[in-house]
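S.,

Sequence below, as promised.
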Amino acid sequence: MAEPAELYATKSDYAYMVLREKILSGEFEPGAVLNQATLARTIGISTTPLREALRRLKSEGLVDLGAHKDAKVTELSGEEARDLLEMRRSLDPLAVALAAERRTRTDIQNIREAVRGVEPLRSNPGYVDLIAHRRFHVALYTASHNELLIQTLDSLWDKADRYRRLGLQVERSQEERDQKHAEHLGLVDAIVAGDAEAASTIMLQHIDTSLGAKAASRLGVSPAATPRGV
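The prediction came back faster than expected:
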């Protein structure tokens, strides 16, 4: 749930967070038409900061803006799901390998705190559940101390949450959920131990069996294999 408007620097920031949460939570479904006048009244702002918020969401690929006053939540795309998965197969293992080599005591503390808040996602997760998973992965990425890599993965995560929801439409078995939990713990152990190879291997497995991979499969595409050394 978005924080009260007064906690944000601008009305545009507040509108952005409200709309983004509604899109990522599935309240605004892919293809939904968003009337700007109605949205502005609902949020309690004028249309000027609302349009600024919508432009930010457009830059993240979450909405389309036409010549008219309505916006539209972007449809899910098999090609985008594949592209996201292919990039994450290369970049996530790199990030955790660097994290194993460069992590500080503060990084280790942040990673351990973040993993305590993560449980394998069930069908129809809340926005808070998605945020907890993102917080854990951000803690891993941050420990790489490669700012360009951190920024790139953060941007990919923005686009990937809706595909995770699609992946969750197929109920996961308890065995699958336990495996995801074991992978989270294994990543922590490998990074703390400074084992870059183990961290990279676990992360690649984590991506290959991820909700994003399930979503790509449901949309009829599969990513090209990425060489292990990349």
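The first helix runs from residue 11 to 24.

Coffee later?
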